[in-house]
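FAQ: What does a multi-protein file look like?

Like this. Sequence, then tokens, then the next protein.
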Amino acid sequence: MDGVNVGLLGVGTVGSGVVKILTQNADIIKKRLGFELNLKKVYSNSIREDVVNLLEGKIASSVDELFDDDIDIVVELIGGTTFAKDFILKAIESKKSVVTANKALLAEFGYEIFSKAFENKVDVGYEASVAGGIPIIKAIKESLGANNIKSIKAIVNGTCNYILSEMLYNEMSFDDALKDAQKKGFAEADPTFDIEGIDSAHKMAILSSISFGDNVKASEVHTEGITRISLLDIKFADELGYRIKLLGIARLIDGKVDVRVHPTMIKKDDILAKTDGEYNAIKVLTDMDDETVYIGKGAGSLPTASAVVADLMDIARNIKYKSHLRVPLMAFPFNFVKKREILNIDDLEMSYYLRFTVKDQAGVLSKISGILGDYNISIKSVIQLNKGEYWVPLIVFTHKAHESSIKQALAIIEKLDVIKEKVLLIRVDNDE
């Protein structure tokens, strides 16, 4: 039985992992497929030294060689949303199936790419675009296919999770924890996409789309990062019985999509609260299978490359047995994919952790509680530190309230002369 040939664009961190797996594990891949999966050609501006010896005779002189007739599947691992998009669309038009880890591209142009693939009767594999080596895309598209998905709650950025874990366990400031993450390779030199929640928003747009048969774009995901979280907040959360995590949430509420990314206080006994370091964790709640949890490393060369190669193996089977598009690209056939309204976060009701920086004087709490009361916001508990300083932290933990009411009250409170700076707001998950 003849094999299936692969063309690879990009031999960086993930691409080098793909090269290693396809060459070093070629025997087990062949045994499981029943035929060979051949890395035929590679094109990259630079190739990591640790895989150069594995690519002898396979390095293409131009990207166009990846579209040759002897290539069955192309893999895009260069990232970005410009050249990568053009490359993928050209590959699809050339009747090549595609595998990509490009979450930013799919979160913005996924529907266009999937539609073009459907027209050309080729597959697109994108398991590696969300949570690295955790097989969450396949779980949602196939394993949970008979279930209505009610909600997804997920930690999908290992950089942020590592930073928050270091702040908790080693009592580090945010800046020090970030520097440590960069030193250990968990954070980029420019960590903006991670710490501002943008990376997580890309992933939640993809998960939301395939969970609910929608076309959610990253720009529609309410997104907040962790840059304002302090060690003080970490400690207060601990005292109150919570952990702070950058959480991605996707739900259907009255026909609208509630999809958001923001710091969230999670009860200590929750599996998400117990997921530390660079690990990711995803909880999927369905109507039939109840709750399933997926935990693993969400990034890294080999975990992500493993997801890429798993997609290659799936698509290779489809090619050999002429079963392209056996599983719908967006988990639903296109006639069941619809564009729903995105729920405005101001319409939600939940509990809140509020950290004020106030003048250390009598009457401050009564002013704040009075304004909160004007907007029907009930206080559950208060922590006030009297440190003998001019400005001190005041922590207010609320019962459930409407977000719009919280924001209106805070807009007034922040104008008081007893308030130093913008109030820190952290939403609370699963509060009674």
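And here is the next protein:
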Amino acid sequence: MAGYGQFCAVARALEVVGERWTLLIARELLLGATTFTDIRRGLPRIPRATLAARLRSLRSAGIVEGAAGRYRLTEPGVALAPVVRELARWATATDSVALSEDDLDTAALTWDMHRRVNTAALPARTVILALDFTDRPPGDRYFWLHLSRTEVNLCRQDTGAPVDVWLATPTDAVTNWWLGGLSWAQLQRQPGVRVHGNRALTHQMHDWFLRYVFTPEVLDASGSG
């Protein structure tokens, strides 16, 4: 990316992290991604070549380091955490970046759900949650979360294991719940939303998820620093 040619610290920072996808790659690494594949699963629309180029740029800038396909943020990279957090705070406080239909992505949503599981709240046995995004085409409609206290796996193919809970929902409704815009009770009252399966588990499942890391409640609790 061509430089801005300005002494301003904001301009100089944007020369490093202002290119498309760059801060989102940092976000993925901050949330625990360590491999190229992990980053792509959190950013399913990024082209492979673009991700490779951005990682090279971040390594050159001293923000990311990695070898043998594994990556981590350096100290200057970790220092981007409050920048990412404040961008999220700004987005939740303004209508300028309201959620749109183009922002709805079942692959990105389910990947975020899989990494935000409250394993301590899970039953002692493995449970399987099937997600049916009723407004999506077949390739983006069905996902299965295999949840246990020691391991969480996200599948895009039915393994044949018995499903304990089904959540059938339009994509916008469950996305708004995940972002903190709806409570679990409000989600269940949305048109087209249905939770069914093992009765005891359907009553527990909202406790299994920590939801989006940048919900207004989490941002308020984290402070502005």
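Q: Is there any per-entry metadata?
A: Some entries carry free-text notes. For the entry above: Residues 24 and 43 are 8 Å apart (CA to CA).
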